[in-house]
Amino acid sequence: MSTFLLILLTGVGLGALYFLVASGLSLIYGLMGVLNFAHGAFLTIGAFTGLWISTKVFPNPTTWTFIAAMIAGGIAAGLFALLMEQLVINRLYNRHIDQALVTVGVGLVVTALLAGWFGSDARLFPTPLWFMKAVTIGEAIIPIDRFVYIGVATILLIAMLSILRFTRIGLIIRAGVENRSMVSALGINVRLAFSTVFFIGGFAAGVGGVLISVFSYGVSPQMGGSWLIYGFIVVVVGGMGSITGSAIAAMLIGVTNQFANYYLTGLGDFVVVIILAAVLLTKPSGLLGKVNH
Amino acid sequence: MSSLEVKDLHVTINGSHILQGVNFFVPENKVTALLGRNGVGKSTTLKAIMGLNPGTGSIKFGGTEIVAMPTHKIVQMGMGYVPEDREIFASLTVKENLSLAARDAEPNYDLVYSLFPELLTRTSQRAGTLSGGQQQMVAIARALLNQNKILVVDEPTKGLAPKLVTEVANALAHVADHSTMLIVEQNLALVKAIAQNIIVMDQGKVVFEGGPENLQDETFVKSMLGVSGGHK
Q1: B147–chain A Cβ distance below 8 A for any pair
Q2: How sure is the predictor about B231, in pLDDT bands with cuts at 50, 70 and 90?
Q3: What global pTM score does this model have?
Q4: Chain A residue closest to B97 (CA)?
Q5: Lower CB count within 10 Å: N or C terminus of chain B?
C-alpha cells in the first residue's frame, strides 16, 4: 500500500509538471493553430532565469527565494514567448510549415546559446532545505517536493481557468479556440488574444522549467527538448485547446508512466505511447478537444 | 455615410477564380439583396467585403477603402455581419455570445430581446445546444447589439422551419426600416418584403441590377435565378 501511494503521488507530481509544459502548448495551438516547437525553449529559459535568481540574486535559498525564482522564471519565459510571437509568429500565421521550421529553429538556437554560455553540464538547482524532507502518509514516505509540484500546478490551473472563465480576454480566447475568424468578424482584434496566450503559455512553461529543474536534479540547456515531447503527447491526448483536457491527460500520463515503470519494469514510456495511439485511433480530437480550425 | 461601393472585385480561392470583377453599389438606408444560383459567388462576395476572403479591386465603405483592411477594423467602422451557417460559439452561453459581440458602450440588449424574447429565457444555455432557429437568432442578435452603419447578412433563413423563417423575417424587416443592409437570401418572399434593390450574380459577376419588382416576373426569376418565384 505504501508503495502504491508513493507511486501514485509521484505520478501525480509528474503529471503536474507535464501539465505546466502542455497547457501553453494546447492553448497556443488551440487558438492560433501554431505548432510551437520552441515551447521547450520557454521551459529552459524559465529554468535558467530561476537558477540565476537562486544563485546570484538570492544565494541563500529559502521558501521566498524559491517562489521568486519561479515567478522570475515564469515572467522571463512569458516575455520571451511574447517577443517570439511579435517578431516571428506574427508574420507566419496560417503558414504552418514555416511556423514549424521557425519554431524548431528558435528552440535549437536557444539551446545552443545557453550551452555556449553555461556549458552543457547540468547545474544543481538550489532549493530550501525542507524540499529534501518527506512526509509520512499511512506507511508511505512521500518526498515533499511532490506536493510542491501538485500545489503550483493546481494554482496555475485555477488561475488559467479563472482568466478563461471570468475575464473578457478569456472569453475572446475561448471563442477564438472555436472560430477565430468569427471573433474578428465581431470587431475584436484577435491578435491581442494571441499575445496573451503566448505570454500565459510561456509563463506556465517557465514556472514548470524551475520545478522540472528540481525534479530532474539539474538545469541543462537540453532539458526543454525531452519534456516538450511529453508536452505534445499530453496535448494530443487531452485535446487541442482544452486546459482541462490537458490537466486530465497530464495526470493520466504521469500516473500511468510511474505505475508502468514500477510494475512493468521500465515500460512507462512504452505504455504512454500505447495510450497516445489508442486516443488517436479512437478519439483523434483528444479527450476534450475543442479546436475547429 | 453608410454606402458601400464594390468595384472590379476579384477573389481567388485555392487557385479558383471565384469573383471575376464584381461591381455594385449599396445605397444608404436601403436594403439591397444579392441574388443568384448556388455557387455563383454571393457568400464569397460578402466575405470579401468583410475582409474574410482576401480580394483585389476596390471596396469603399462610406468613402473609405477597406479592401486590404483587417476584418476587425472593418467591423469597428460600423459593419455588422451575420454569417452563413450562423457560426455561433457553441461552447459559450447565449449571454457570452452576445457580450462578446457587444462593442458599443451601451449595447442595445432591449432591441435584441424585444425581437427575440426567447433568448432572454436561455441566457445561461450553451449556444451549441440551441435549435437551428435559436442559433440564427443569436447570430442576428450579435449584429443588432451595436449601432452599425450597415448590416451584411448571409442567408439568414437557410435551413429554418417556416415558423422561424417568419420570426427571423420580421426581425430583419424591423431592422430594414432604418438601416442599410446587404443581404444574400434565397427566400424571394423575404427579399420582396424588405429589399429596395436587387443585384443578381452569375459565374462570379454581376449580371443584373434593378428593383425588386422584377421578381414578380416569372420568366426573369427562372432565367436569372433558376427557380420559380411563386413559392420561393
Answers
A1: no
A2: very low
A3: 0.85
A4: A175
A5: N
What value of ipTM does the predicted structure carry?
A: 0.90
State the residue for C-alpha cell 532545505.
A129
Query: B47 to chain A, minimum CA–CA distance in Å?
Result: 10
Which bin fits A125, alpha (ψ -120 to 50), beta or left (φ > 0)? beta
For an interface test with A, which of B14, B61, B72 has the most A Cβ atoms less than 10 Å from its Cβ?
A: B72
Lowest mean pLDDT among A121-125, B1-5, B206-210: B1-5
Classify residue B189 as exposed, middle or buried by CB count within 10 Å of its CB (0-12, 13-18, 19+). Answer: middle
**B142 lies within 8 A of chain A by CB:** yes
From the list A231, A219, A241, the residue with the least C-alpha distance to A288 is A241
Check B103 against A187: CB less than 8 A apart.
Answer: yes
Question: Which chain A residues are closer than 8 Å to B107 by Cβ?
Answer: none
The DSSP symbol for A57 reads: I
- For B160-173, how does the pLDDT look when each residue is reduced to its tens digit (9 = 90+)? 888 888 888 888 88
pLDDT at position B1, please? 67
pLDDT exceeds 90 at position A191? no
Assess contact for A213 and A50: CB atoms under 8 A.
Answer: yes
- Other CB atoms within a 10 A radius of the CB of residue A98 amount to 14
Radius of gyration of chain A (CA): 19
Yes or no: say if A40 and A175 are a contact pair by the CB < 8 Å rule.
Answer: no
The answer to whether A189 faces chain B, any CB pair under 8 Å, is: yes
**Closest alpha carbon to B6 in B205, B224, B212, B154:** B205
Domains, chain A, ordered by start: 2-282 (1.10.3470)
- Compute the distance between CA of residue A280 and CA of residue B114 in angstroms, rounded to an integer: 47
Judged by CB atoms closer than 8 Å, whether chains meet at A185 and B90 is answered as: no
CATH superfamily, region B4-225: P-loop containing nucleotide triphosphate hydrolases (3.40.50.300)
The residue assigned the cell 467585403 is B49
